[in-house]
Amino acid sequence: MQLRYNFRLYPTPGQQVALAQAFGCARVVFNDGLRLRQHAREAGLPHIKDSALQKMVITEAKRNPDRAWLAEVSSVVLIQALGDLHNAYRNFFASFTGKRKGPKVSAPRFRSRKDNRRSIRLTRNGFGLRPNGRLYVANVGELKVTWSRALPSVPSSVAVTRDAAGRYFASFVVQTEDEPLVQVDSEVGIDLGLTTFAVLSNGKQIESPRFLRRVERKLRRAQQALSRKQKGSANRTKARVTVARVHARVSDTRRDWAHKHSTAIIRENQAVFVEDLCVKGLARTRLAKSVHDAGWGMFTCMLQEKAVRYGRTFHKVDRFFPSSQLCSACGRIDGPKPLHICEWSCPCGATHDRDVNAAQNILAAGRAESSNACGGTVIPSA
């Protein structure tokens, strides 16, 4: 399987200028190719092939005085930027015809020069790893890399990115082999929430860290300072970077926290079952900020990816499964309950903690679905 390894880069001021030029040229090539294809569609002409488009926006454009500066950057950067456009069109066509699963993909859009996030992609003939631990990028030079771990294999490509906070990163794509863990007997169902981030069927609870709520006061002050700065001024740029750094710290902390807990759950359990939540729908309610701050989607994606990598079983239970209404002891559906009800008693005599009972029902439903050879809906029995 292919994995990405991200490392922090520290380019010199001269290298930052060269990277900025590469970012801009990649954006121009992408926009030129998109513009030509849009004009051909509006004129009723056939779709321009990839090879012909590359010749028009790169080879012939370099001979044009208006685009002569494209020759100052590596051709690998320009070719890969055009390759991103080709992939965007393929994904759009596949989504439009129904061949691509998941949410619908919109048509490619022009890249804005005002976007504070920039990136370029290079293949093996455009970069190299030096013995001194530096990353060589064509027409840029050797970049200082902070290596937090060794790469498991030779990378096939690298993406150099600059985020809104002004930080540079190198994302290497490497080929790795699956690493199955030793099998264990435990299985777990997980009920996700806001007050408590996750409640496991074995009774363990993971408290919600609320990373964004912790820095709301600091973020509010930074945003207020940004709103007072004159547009186009250097001070406004500094204030914008300050706001971006606060958001970047929250995002990095949340991602690190999710990685640690998801890895621990995968290592301790042979099978993991979670509820398939409609995060997009919940994000349109009055709880939108808390839902986004929780990061349920990122957490479940990490569980699924690590389960495949380490030989574990992962399954999502249907979102319409009444896990909070079902008694895990007798199987009786007791009806919907408001969110403020944390405990409830069933007529059979069992008293349940709302979240623990839901996690146990999710575990039972996941086991029943896993053992169903026909793939139909199975109601978990008591």
List the helices and strands and how they pair.
Blueprint: E1 2-10, H1 13-42, H2 50-59, H3 75-97, E2 118-123, E3 127-129, E4 135-137, E5 141-146, E6 157-162, E7 168-175, E8 187-192, E9 196-200, E10 205-207, H4 211-214, H5 216-227, H6 234-268, E11 271-275, H7 279-282, H8 288-294, H9 296-309, E12 313-317, E13 343-345, E14 351-353, H10 354-370
Parallel strand pairs: 8-11, 11-12
Antiparallel strand pairs: 1-5, 1-7, 2-6, 3-4, 4-5, 6-7, 8-9, 9-10, 13-14
Main sheet, how many strands, which sense, barrel? Answer: 7 strands, antiparallel
Shape: elongated
Instruction: Classify the secondary structure makeup into a structural class.
Output: alpha+beta
Radius of gyration: 25 Å
Number of structural domains: 2
Low-confidence stretches: none
Helices, by number, come to: 10
Distance between the termini: 39 Å
Key descriptive features of the protein:
single chain; 382 residues; alpha+beta; Nucleotidyltransferase, domain 5; five-stranded mixed sheet
Structure notes:
With 382 residues, the protein is an alpha+beta fold. The protein folds into 2 domains: 2-175, no CATH class; 187-208 and 246-373, Nucleotidyltransferase, domain 5 (2-Layer Sandwich), CATH 3.30.420. The chain is 41% helix and 19% strand. It has helices spanning 13-42, 50-59, 75-97, 211-214, 216-227, 234-268, 279-282, 288-294, 296-309, 354-370; strands spanning 2-10, 118-123, 127-129, 135-137, 141-146, 157-162, 168-175, 187-192, 196-200, 205-207, 271-275, 313-317, 343-345, 351-353. The strands form 3 sheets. A 7-stranded antiparallel β-sheet has the order 2-6-7-1-5-4-3. A 5-stranded mixed β-sheet has the order 10-9-8-11-12. It is elongated. The mean pLDDT is 90.
